[in-house]
């Protein structure tokens, strides 16, 4: 499997090693790992091939969010974050090709808020000025390891990868815990279960924010209930404080971080 080789670990290190993020519980930094790469990476690759790699200890802490709330998070060791990045490199092209709709942006390569705004602007220009604007609440909560592995297994059939994925996720407090390099993929995979139920709607999603475009307020209200039902089917619900019907939407008002 490609991600298991030392070459692919070195690629992941080039991607991650430029960061200045915190050290893990073992105190190793990215600078330390770069200096020790010649010793660490061959051994790590051998463990991954043999299936003997196990996650290291976590550094758990609480960080403030932009809203002023506190968010529990877990910081893996830099070696574990390297494995997460290598796994993401291996699986992301498959998911991009097969799992994610064209109207989904956020947590994806080359698809950001600007991509979502362009798609939204096209729909608004087409006369669909009423918008059902719904944020999915608590998308990182309530996920079991088996469920998360099952999302990947819909698209990935490599048993070695799925076993490694189970090991990685089992070493975290929960599969979608903030701080994991796999959390962005997992959020999109979870929401893809909602996305597949929205066939026929004029919808754009950025991260966990759905905007469905209609001609009338009554259509927007009906669409909002439809999206809510699609969320409920996978144990999610709209964030009541951030969800609304926009009667004459302006694209620049959509997909804001603070709602």
From TrEMBL:
Ranges where the Reverse transcriptase domain occurs: 69-246
Molecular function, one GO term: RNA-directed DNA polymerase activity
InterPro entries: DNA/RNA_pol_sf, GrpII_Intron_Splice-Mob/Def, RT_dom
Pfam families in the cross-refs: RVT_1
Source taxon at top rank: Bacteria
Keywords, sorted A to Z: Nucleotidyltransferase, RNA-directed DNA polymerase, Transferase
Name of this protein: Retron-type reverse transcriptase
Species, as recorded: Saccharopolyspora endophytica
